[in-house]
Design goal:
The chain has about 260 residues and is α/β, with parallel strands linked by helices. About 25% of the residues lie in helices and about 25% in strands. Helix 1 (about 15-25) packs parallel to helix 5 and helix 2 (about 70-80) crosses helix 4 (about 105-115). The radius of gyration is 20 Å and the shape is globular. The protein starts with a strand and ends in a 12-residue tail after the last helix. Bound molecules: manganese (II) ion (MN). The site of manganese (II) ion has 7 residues, from helix 4.
């Protein structure tokens, strides 16, 4: 099995080392990751600058640092390592959760999304720690992945979907189990903090306090907050199929005839 490993925390991130150490037990691993941290870059790609890939020493594995974001790493990695494609793209372990709407900002998730667009089975993995400075417990993520590897890889590959996994950042025995759940609603309050620089000019710092909507049952947010590993299948088809007919009627648009539309 040919496995491409990437992340958004950069080539030196301990979460990447933990992920590669598990993956190499199950197949041929090549590591292609950003040369520095690119968290919260989302599914962006580099178009207007060259991308350089430099070989990096990595304990017997082929590894490259790339002057780009995770999407760039997956595409450069495939061109460099496996022009005919590979069998699995792993992105992580991120140093923090990627729950609910975080998936749209996350570079970690974007790495898996790009693998998915390349028609490769892909998994994003994050350590869900909620306290600044608390340990990420990558060893827990590594053990969880190792113990569930066969089950994850035995699943039939569904094109245009990938998995988003969040592992609570706790000691392994404290994990309560696994929940397969939908995307929750993790939003931020007081997102923009206005400040003043030493010269009296206003500026803004974006961050914010996480306001998790734990009222939404059967979501990644709820599962992780209760100590379970969350596994969420995500589809690249963002269409709201339930609204297609309503919109066709309102706009008198095709493809279906409008005889069934309300007058
Ligand atoms: Mn990150």
């Amino acid at each position: 099995m040919r496995i491409l490993v990437t992340n958004d925390d950069g080539i030196r991130a301990p979460g990447l080392i933990a992920l590669a150490s598990v993956a190499r037990q199950f197949g041929e691993v090549k590591i292609v990751a950003p040369d520095h941290e690119r968290s919260a870059c989302g599914h962006s790609m580099t178009l207007h600058e060259p991308l350089r890939a430099w070989p990096v020493e990595w304990d017997g594995l082929e590894a490259y640092e790339v002057t780009g974001v995770p999407v760039d790493c997956v595409n450069v990695g495939l061109a460099l390592c496996w022009p005919d494609g590979c069998d699995l793209v792993l992105s992580g372990f991120n140093n923090g959760p990627n729950l609910g709407f975080d998936v749209t900002y996350s570079g970690t998730v974007a790495g898996a999304m790009e693998g998915c667009i390349n028609r490769i089975r892909s998994i994003a993995l994050s350590m869900a720690s909620f306290v600044t400075g608390a340990p990420y417990h990558y060893e827990t993520g590594a053990r969880w992945l190792s113990e569930n590897w066969d089950a994850l890889v035995a699943l039939p590959h569904v094109p245009l979907t990938f998995l988003n996994v969040n592992v609570p950042a706790v000691d392994y025995p404290e994990l309560r189990g696994i929940r397969v759940v939908g995307m929750g609603r993790r939003v931020y309050e007081e997102r923009i903090e206005p400040r003043t620089d030493p010269w009296g000019r206003d500026y803004f710092w974006q961050g914010g306090v996480v306001a998790m909507d734990k009222d939404q049952p059967d979501t990644d947010v709820e599962a992780v907050s209760e100590g379970f590993v969350s596994v969420t299948p995500i589809t690249l088809d963002w269409t709201d199929h339930s609204r297609l007919e309503e919109l066709r009627c309102a706009l008198r648009a095709g493809p279906s005839p409008h005889a069934h539309c309300p007058p």
